[in-house]
């Protein structure tokens, strides 16, 4: 049997179904950014606000809502094609829950569609176990007229004990559910939920249904599990994979965790997912190496090979091209005469040319370190701010007792702490984004916005760390600076998102 991804893209042939799924059901419209609704169907419309350009539309589902949505789709397809819900579910899982395509394909090619999905010929009646005279199990070779056996539509019959053990192994140990095949040799028929309900019970059956729900979420492009620990919510966002180069779909779960719906990483606006992955890989591969290379090596003036000085003598010989030069001034060693261990020369043309070549070769390294150091600094500051946030409640309690303010009145500290965390996260990723930007007028505007936000965040951070007796007098200033930080962050993200959506940014890397 071919893989699940080989179905038809139109009703003329069922061979390439999934290749064009991304182009169907394109609910993204203008890139996921809505226009201001000017209708007044209810009172809430009077207060409806336009989303910011950096925001996307999404909704959060709990496990019960996900399961209800899954069952609704199964029931709809079952009613249209006239199959049992169990078989309709197998078809939908094969087609990765694109019900419109599945219905079209089944209507035009019913037998071939069933065969490719692993359903096989449809039979009437419910699944039952049987005792057949002269039966011999092909797995354990148990035989006898009193041996209880089971077979699906493919008629590969095995004893119930072997069938049950096979299913338990697939579900419990391998975590399989949606594509469990018949245990018959090379059989491609899929075990449906009716068979599982008949043969299994208790925890194994519950795990089977839980895995089916997880498979449903994993197969649907618009659904993603919240990556926060112990969170069971699912976020539904309509941004397609093909649009992730121009949209950063940041969502917030009901547990308050903010993450990117495209890659499940924590919020990384304004950098698109592809650049984020490139940056993370570069940092993992290059950051420590680049710092060490910058501090401890130089390039050979002739062949540009990187050389580490492993002795006290300044007389260097490149192992690759055998070029002899001075470590201090990079000039030809033959021009040094008797200056073997110390060099105060600067005027030789050979040394000047070598130093210029080395400066050019180190320019890209220095550029990377410039952005990495600032990225790393904000990452470290965010961790310190998070530690500070964990102590915020204690600080709020102390301020309340020392100043006579109510608990509601000291909430400004909690608001400021959240703003610091959010702005640090944004600033961190602005440097990763800036590293890949090609310089132009838009880049200068971006850097100005980045600078304004950075200064505001540092000022707020300094006020937030003041001694508790001073915080009551700084309440108004902290509230003002918190609002200003939020405003500058939105301005930066909106400007970046608009230019990204419209394809205005130029990048210095292919991605």
TrEMBL record:
<dbReference type="InterPro" id="IPR002867">
    <property type="entry name" value="IBR_dom"/>
</dbReference>
<keyword id="KW-0808">Transferase</keyword>
<dbReference type="InterPro" id="IPR018957">
    <property type="entry name" value="Znf_C3HC4_RING-type"/>
</dbReference>
<keyword id="KW-0677">Repeat</keyword>
<dbReference type="InterPro" id="IPR048962">
    <property type="entry name" value="ARIH1-like_UBL"/>
</dbReference>
<feature type="region of interest" description="Disordered">
    <location>
        <begin position="1"/>
        <end position="53"/>
    </location>
</feature>
<dbReference type="GO" id="GO:0016567">
    <property type="term" value="P:protein ubiquitination"/>
</dbReference>
<keyword id="KW-0833">Ubl conjugation pathway</keyword>
<protein>
    <recommendedName>
        <fullName>RBR-type E3 ubiquitin transferase</fullName>
        <ecNumber>2.3.2.31</ecNumber>
    </recommendedName>
</protein>
<keyword id="KW-0479">Metal-binding</keyword>
<feature type="compositionally biased region" description="Acidic residues">
    <location>
        <begin position="16"/>
        <end position="28"/>
    </location>
</feature>
<feature type="domain" description="RING-type">
    <location>
        <begin position="137"/>
        <end position="183"/>
    </location>
</feature>
<dbReference type="InterPro" id="IPR044066">
    <property type="entry name" value="TRIAD_supradom"/>
</dbReference>
<dbReference type="InterPro" id="IPR017907">
    <property type="entry name" value="Znf_RING_CS"/>
</dbReference>
<keyword id="KW-0862">Zinc</keyword>
<dbReference type="InterPro" id="IPR013083">
    <property type="entry name" value="Znf_RING/FYVE/PHD"/>
</dbReference>
<keyword id="KW-0863">Zinc-finger</keyword>
<dbReference type="Pfam" id="PF22191">
    <property type="entry name" value="IBR_1"/>
</dbReference>
<dbReference type="InterPro" id="IPR001841">
    <property type="entry name" value="Znf_RING"/>
</dbReference>
<feature type="domain" description="RING-type">
    <location>
        <begin position="133"/>
        <end position="347"/>
    </location>
</feature>
<dbReference type="GO" id="GO:0061630">
    <property type="term" value="F:ubiquitin protein ligase activity"/>
</dbReference>
<dbReference type="InterPro" id="IPR045840">
    <property type="entry name" value="Ariadne"/>
</dbReference>
<dbReference type="InterPro" id="IPR031127">
    <property type="entry name" value="E3_UB_ligase_RBR"/>
</dbReference>
<dbReference type="Pfam" id="PF01485">
    <property type="entry name" value="IBR"/>
</dbReference>
<dbReference type="Pfam" id="PF19422">
    <property type="entry name" value="Ariadne"/>
</dbReference>
<dbReference type="GO" id="GO:0008270">
    <property type="term" value="F:zinc ion binding"/>
</dbReference>
<dbReference type="Pfam" id="PF21235">
    <property type="entry name" value="UBA_ARI1"/>
</dbReference>
<dbReference type="Pfam" id="PF00097">
    <property type="entry name" value="zf-C3HC4"/>
</dbReference>
